[in-house]
Amino acid sequence: MPCNDISRRTVIKQIAVGATGTLLLSLFPRLSFGNGESSGKTKNAAGKRPLYAYAVDTSRCIGCCACMRGCRAENDVPKDRYRTWVERYRVLSNGEVQVDVAANDQFVFQDPPPADITKAFFVPKLCNHCEKSVCSQVCPIGASYETPEGVVLVDTKRCVGCGYCVQACPYGCRFIHPETHMASKCTLCYHRITRGLLPACVQSCPKGARMFGDLHDPLSHLSIFMKQRRYRVLKPEMGTKPKCYYVDLDIEVI
Amino acid sequence: MNFVFPNELHVTWTVMIVLYPYITGLVAGAFIVSSLYHVFGCEELKPISRFSLASAFVFLLFATMPLLMHLGHAERAFNIMLTPHFTSAMAGFGYIYSTYTILVALEIWFVMRSDLIRRTRDSGFLPWICKVIVLFNYRDTPETRNADHRIAKVLAGVGIPLACLLHGYVGFLFGSIKANPWWATPLMFVIFIFSAIVSGISVLIFHYFIVSKINRWKVDGPCVRSLAQYLWAFMIVAVALEGMELLSIIYEQTEATDVLSLLIRTKLFWSYVVLQFFICSLVPFFMLGITSLFKLSDRIAFKMIWVSSCLLLAQVLLMRWNVVIGGQLLSKSLRGFTSYMPGIWEKEGLITAGVILTLPFVILYVFHCIVSLFPDAEKESLPTHGV
Question: Which candidate, A193, B120, B197, B271, has a CA 20 to 30 Å from the CA of A159?
Fold first, then answer.
């Protein structure tokens, strides 16, 4: 009988190897199961894996908030929570800076402008999908993670809703969903971009103030734009290396 | 100026997350008091050595309750140990907490084994529980007691750094959030450790006086006076560290200094400046200073010590509130503040908080019914000197 050839030592060794492997895979589930969604598009035109990023040309934004409406229509964004929003800055002649958002159901800036405005502009905000995302770092069970394409997502099968990522995000882009009780945030419309579509906010912007593209593709609209324009990121001192780049950003914007 | 990012209008960490560091602080402080006797041989603390160890254990059992109440998916809580993400400081919680709980349980077992064996000789249901707890081993000789004592001493010694780790780690959870200028300070975990010791000693004094009063036991003067001196010393360090943190915020004049100053002067004025610093820190500082430096009668000294312990319990709770809630009131836009008022009946409301804070005392009473936490006091039946 062939089984008689297997010594007791061999059987014990095999059991030990199997048990160790199972233990390791349970401790590091990413090795065994991957991490949430995977991109449908693994290679770009340049033959590389895409690295998605975002750019905002603040000088183009007119504060219409179509992006906010588009985001809400596309995604399950609960009332009074925001995956993206538009900030309005008004600098008065006395140097005072007034900031507000159209954070209401109508997504419109309602109050009339004060008489002595010297400068006014709009700044769209969203998750910065940081290269060194602190929200992913602090997640105690790895529910918050970065996809190979550079998109920071939340695995809803794992999130415990502790809120640590909400506290850690320097940009206030995360929230706890009041119905699912899990962390929620901008996904860059991952379900759209992996099918070759634009994020809903980019699609709905009438002025082209929001741009999305692949930094690994030198011929992409975003890559060309980034080569031609001067830009900066929000809170660079946090060391998070955001991948949301702002063109023509005023010093008042934090 | 009052602009907050729109997602910051809702405070994520509620009063439950205020309770979590508060309860772990009580654990760490009570454990360190018990170790002062078991490890460092502070004989004057013997009357409350068992009580402090049992308090640490019982509070430890309830330390996770506010967290579980807070989690959006408490049913996944155990995943923190099954699939930990070690880049996160929070991932260590399950391991640190479990290790410490096992250690404290073992220490209690060795400290109280002899008494549990004695209880097995009684009649009724309780002795059966005791038999299970002592694992049906009824050997109780001077040799076994010596061995138990030696092992308990080692466990208590190992437990001191673990207690500091448990609570210092909680402080680190806050201090390492660089996005929040009210939290992000390397001093945070040191402050948490010292304030933990303050709250632990305070809760022991507070509870010891009440128990003595109810049972008409004589309060052990040297024990209470010694505790008061330790409390005075630790509260000076804790408050000084908190003051230094404030001083560094003011002195450094970073971009967040103005808004932090406004936070202290407006949103946290009553809870931080008036209550935490002036009433609940300065008053006990002077009262404990007087009881430590001057020879007062027991009656007056005990009253002052008890009031000080109550104030310091409140001080540490306020400190937790001002850290946890205060940090979230401040917008990361550095341009304004949000508001927070806990509900009364909601899941993470005040009633829940009250129940979580009360339950450990009930369980401690049950514990006392099984094994006496004050064997010396029960032997005596002299009139009380308590408050």
Answer: A193
Interface test with B, best of A128, A138, A174, A186 (most B CBs within 10 A): A138
Report the distance separating Cα A25 and Cα B264, nearest Å: 48
Inter-chain CB proximity A162 and B90 less than 8 Å = yes
Distance CA B294, CA B345 (A): 47
3-state helix, strand, coil in chain A (%, to 5): 25, 20, 55
Q: State the residue for tokens 């800055």.
A: A89
The amino acid that residue A167 corresponds to is Q
pLDDT at residue B175, rounded to an integer: 95
Cα–Cα dist A77/A87, whole Å: 18
User: Which sequence spans correspond to the domains of chain B?
Assistant: 6-379
Band (pLDDT 50/70/90 cuts) for residue A104 is: low
Task: Answer yes or no: do A176 and B3 touch at CB < 8 A.
Answer: no
**A238 backbone dihedrals φ, ψ, rounded to 5°:** -75, -15
How far apart are the C-alpha atoms of B5 and B336, rounded to whole Å? 9
Among the partner residues A169, A176, A238, nearest to B72 by beta-carbon distance: A176
User: Which amino acid, residue B257?
Assistant: T
The segment with the largest mean pLDDT, out of A114-123, A234-243, B246-255, is A234-243
Q: pLDDT for B333-353, tens place per residue? A: 999 999 999 999 999 999 999
Chain B contacts of A128, Cβ < 8 Å?
A: none
pLDDT tens, A29-78?
Answer: 444 333 333 344 567 777 788 999 999 999 999 999 999 999 999 998 99
From the list A141, A166, A175, the residue facing B83 with the nearest CB is A141
- Cα A126 to Cα A44, B172, B356, distances in angstroms: 25, 28, 38
Give the domain B6-379 fold: Formate dehydrogenase/DMSO reductase fold (1.20.1630)
* Segment 272-311 of chain B within 8 Å of chain A by CB: none
* Per-residue model confidence as pLDDT tens digits over A168-201: 999 999 999 999 999 999 999 999 999 999 999 9
Report which of B163, B314, B189 is spatially closest to residue B245, judged by C-alpha positions: B189
Task: Supply the pLDDT for residue A2.
Answer: 45
The backbone torsions φ and ψ at residue A167, rounded to the nearest 5 degrees and listed phi first, read -70, -35
- The shortest C-alpha distance from A15 to chain B (Å) reads 21
**Higher pLDDT among residues A62 and A23, named by residue:** A62
Alpha-carbon span B32 to B48, nearest angstrom: 12
Sorted by sequence, the CB contacts under 8 Å of residue A241 that are 6+ apart come out as A130, A131, A132, A233
Cβ <8 Å between B77 and A175: no
Q: What percent of chain B has pLDDT over 70?
A: 98
